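Hey, I was hoping to borrow your eyes for a little while. I'm sending you its amino acid sequence along with the backbone structure tokens. Take your time with it, there's no hurry, and the full record follows here.
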Amino acid sequence: MNSKCLQMAVRRIFSSLSVLKSLKSKGYNVGKLKWKSPREYRSIVFNQSGFDVDSNTGRTEHATLELSKIGPMDVDYHRPLPEDGNIKEVRLKEEKSGKWYASVVVDHDPEHPEKPAVEDIRLEDTAGIDLGILKFVHDSDGNAVTPLDESEDRERIEKRHRALSRKQHGSNNWEKARVKLAEAYERLANKRKDFIEKLAHSYTTQYDAVFLEKLNVREMLEQDSNGRNIASMSWSEAIKTFERHGNKNGCHVVTVPPEGTPKRCARCDVESDKALWVCEHSCPGCGFEADRDENASYNVQKLGMDKLGVDYEVDAVVGLGEAESTPAETALPSGADVNDELSFRLVPAKRVVETGSHESPDPW
């Protein structure tokens, strides 16, 4: 084994211990690191040396990767490496489905558009986004995107779990069933990632500034009985993806605390208690009525502009100066023809995946 790989393995253990120490200091109940068998250790890292990438194979999407103590291997590019980039690290990883991936870290300064100056940002070029379960996102421009339909994937996973349980543990048939189950999980993970990537790209290319709630997902999973739906939303991954696309597309991505955004009136700042199943906001102070998530998105937008330093007038925030809107129904319809019955445009997640846009083609 290459000496650099062994050094990186030790560094990984030290990093894991540091994370446990940090969590323990914050009051979390943490255990000990678990021993990994050679079968479970699925990745190695070549840092600074021990690798060579030859792109002169005559084919633009293929290359030869040579690793110390392993030898040369053919690889397919996800995207070409920059010609002026300096390769710093190669990470070789085997997924549970048996597929191998090589991640190449390149020291490269790509040309990205600069983020606009704060004083040049206009209110209409910003968007506040409320994250939720019934609607994955609801923005301050009146667009609401439904979550992905994972019913077929869940059914496929459950079916393959049952098939695996009927096999003798460790047998060849058990291994085949395990690989099929891993492929089903990988398919679901890729489906979620593709949806979030396209959604983040759509928002960060359309707006100069996007504001999101900084949700404490770990605490929500520990306290809420709706853990499966919360975990399936991948909110933490969505926030990281928005921030990465913001840096790439020249868009300010700002996170704000979520406390009080659904309960506080976006027009007069009066707070009113409401249960989670109440989907309408009706202010007892000023009488402003809107969908619960719509009201929250306005509050997120205001908090984000305050944090970023954008000048605005409260009454000019999108939707606040208009007449009372029709509250949405508790059960969200799935068809596109129901937009006339709602105070917002309901966009299926399937459209985001197929077109790469979060906007509805249907006019108001």
